[in-house]
Amino acid sequence: MEKLTVELGARSYPILIGDGLLAEIGAHVAPLLKRPRTMIVTDSHVADSYLARVGASLGAEGISFSSFVLPAGEGTKSWDGLARLTEWLIGEGIERSDHVIALGGGVIGDLVGFACSIVKRGCAFIQAPTTLLAQVDSSVGGKTAINVAAGKNLIGAFHQPALVVIDPTTLATLPPRELGAGYAEVVKYGLIDDAGFFAWCEANGAALLAGDGEARHRAIAHSVAAKARIVAADERETQDVRALLNLGHSFGHALEAETGYSDRLLHGEAVAAGMVLAHQFSAAHGLCSAADAARVRDHLAGVGLPHSLTSAGVNSGGAALAAHMAHDKKVRGGKLPLILTRGIGQSFVTDAYGLDAVAAFLDGQQAT
Ligand SMILES: NC(=O)c1ccc[n+]([C@@H]2O[C@H](COP(=O)([O-])OP(=O)(O)OC[C@H]3O[C@@H](n4cnc5c(N)ncnc54)[C@H](O)[C@@H]3O)[C@@H](O)[C@H]2O)c1
Ligand SMILES: [Zn+2]
């Protein structure tokens, strides 16, 4: 088992990574509890495979628990899902010192984290992520949210978990498309500031996706360490440091919006294409070499991820796509900060380019 720490002073917390860890989660949870009781929240897919395992482990430590199974899918991260979950937690007699276990992907993690930020003005929670995306990204850092009619993640809070327990063997049951989408976020850490890790991805990404346990473990540990470092440096994204995690996301969100936030294009798939576009935009403006942009595209294409507007299934004009970006919640004073790059592993934040430049660039990317 590997142990990392997110260094946030009094709110610091450990991240445990180990094959088979879900079967011993009780032993790691027990020391945190004031009374031997907890609540597990999960979704219908994850419950089938892992709820019994987690329950047995808690039982072995003498911890009683109740569980709440929500429908799988992004729709659960909603006012309705939040209402149902918070009412259930209150009905279960939750106390502020209790720790709720979020067992599932980013949807469950984001929803449970937000619910726990407001129930009784804040109670504790534990992340037990079961998707690659959640294991390398959403379970660490304390961003929690639900979606509303006006957009994704618009209602939420910063609320750090008390513990993150990552069992990479859960990826064995994850659908391949979900695995690929999570892998895009792994590659992101290399592209942000770690050219050596990007080269590692080029060499090992295909094996990771095919099921290589060692490659999975290494990628998760490396990614989560990078995320922990970035979060510790800029917990609430008040400087540009945490904003770097949005590499590929502004372009990606435009693609997600254009495809209706549907399973036509998963978030990570949109991020893959978005990262290629960010590099190509950078190359087009003389910031990075065309060779680096091509390397990014070739790797993501090579592992079967979308790497262009066409492969992302989007054939809208640049103006329509840029219009989506204008609604991004990161817009400041009418300008959208973009994450661009000077080369692989050399990303930076800038608001030097207007959305008209983005629209013109995207028009030139059609049918490439
Ligand atoms: N808080 C953050 O910092 C942050 C960062 C990135 C993304 N997110 C959010 O995360 C969400 C996406 O997370 P996600 O990609 O994990 O999606 P998800 O939670 O919907 O999981 C994807 C699918 O996989 C299923 N699943 C989960 N684990 C499984 C397993 N081990 N085996 C089989 N099936 C399994 C789920 O039931 C679901 O159908 C989005 O709402 C996004 O906004 C949050
Ligand atoms: Zn993302």
Description:
This protein is an alpha/beta fold and 368 residues long. The protein has helices at residues 25-29, 44-60, 79-91, 106-118, 132-138, 176-193, 195-210, 213-233, 240-243, 249-258, 267-284, 290-302, 318-326, 355-364; strands spanning 2-6, 13-17, 37-43, 64-70, 99-104, 124-129, 143-148, 151-158, 163-166, 338-341, 347-350. The strands form three sheets. Strands 1-2-9-6-5-3-4 form a seven-stranded mixed sheet, with helices on both faces. The protein has a two-stranded antiparallel sheet with strand order 7-8. A two-stranded antiparallel ribbon has the order 10-11. Strand 5, helix 4 and strand 6 (124-129) form a beta-alpha-beta unit. It is globular, with a radius of gyration of 20 Å. Zinc ion binds at residues 137, 185, 249, 267, 271. Nicotinamide-adenine-dinucleotide is lined by residues 43, 45-46, 49, 72-74, 77, 104-108, 110, 130-131, 133-134, 137-138, 141, 143, 152-153, 170, 173-174, 178, 267.
Summarize this, please?
By secondary structure, this protein is of the alpha/beta class.
For the largest sheet, list the strands in their spatial order: 1-2-9-6-5-3-4
Q: What integer value in Å does the Rg equal?
A: 20 Å
| Share of β-strand residues | 15-25%
| Share of helical residues | 40-55%
Provide the descriptors you would attach to this structure in a database record.
alpha/beta, 17% strand, binds nicotinamide-adenine-dinucleotide, binds zinc ion
SSE topology:
Blueprint: E1 2-6, E2 13-17, H1 25-29, E3 37-43, H2 44-60, E4 64-70, H3 79-91, E5 99-104, H4 106-118, E6 124-129, H5 132-138, E7 143-148, E8 151-158, E9 163-166, H6 176-193, H7 195-210, H8 213-233, H9 240-243, H10 249-258, H11 267-284, H12 290-302, H13 318-326, E10 338-341, E11 347-350, H14 355-364
Parallel strand pairs: 2-9, 3-4, 3-5, 5-6, 6-9
Antiparallel strand pairs: 1-2, 7-8, 10-11
Helix pairs in contact: 3-4, 5-6, 5-8, 6-7, 6-11, 7-8, 10-11, 10-13, 11-12, 13-14
Bound molecules: nicotinamide-adenine-dinucleotide and zinc ion.
Nicotinamide-adenine-dinucleotide binds next to helix 2, helix 4, helix 5 and strand 8.
